[in-house]
Amino acid sequence: MATFGKLFLGVWxxxxxxxxxxxxxxxxxAAAGGVFSSPDLARIIILHLPNSMVVIVAAFxxxxxxxxxxxxxxxxxxxxxxxxxxxxxxxxxxLATVTGSVFARVEWGAYWNWDPxxxxxxxxxxxxxxxxxxxxxxxxxxxxxxxxxxYVLFAVVMTPMLGYVVPKYMATQSLHPKNTxxxxxxxxxxxxxxxxxxxxxxxLQNIAVRADLVRMAWEEYQCKE
Length: 225
Fold this sequence. Notes:
By secondary structure, the protein is an all-alpha fold. Helices cover 77% and strands 0% of the residues. The chain has one domain: Four Helix Bundle (Hemerythrin (Met), subunit A) (Up-down Bundle). The chain is built from six helices and no strands. The protein is globular and about 65 Å long. The relative contact order is 0.17.
């Protein structure tokens, strides 16, 4: 990522944080129907939903490179890109869980309520954890990459299913409100935060892939000596 892009991303996220903590308190009520019992403290949702957006994006990116690996010559670089994106999907999934727990404590009185969405994200975390267990358990590099690529395609399907479809359309009872309509201030800030977090993901993906490529080149160099 070019220097200008990094500076722009840093300024963008800084402005999002300023809007979250200094502008949104004046935007009460935060959602139609009085969804937020404590609108000021519920600003954490601006840091919660964008993490979930990044999880979906990262999952599909990892799936794309996994499919490329399986169908376009088994290029180790595609495996690295897929693995890195899975790692970032898991990281942002953890951040979504943590910020969601803070929101639950503020709005519903407990950090964990075994709400359908909380159960689904817990299952999603287990799916991502299983990927790294699987990866660590296979010594042969090519076999590991192939098996993990197939598993990633499964994880890609499960990510939107558990992150959106199941809790929204299949759960009969949930503390999470459905069809919430945010006011303009929240909507614009959420969109800006989502764009900023996706940009942050792209930057981290680029750094991690380059670091893995350097490591791979160094290992190849050592093998030749």
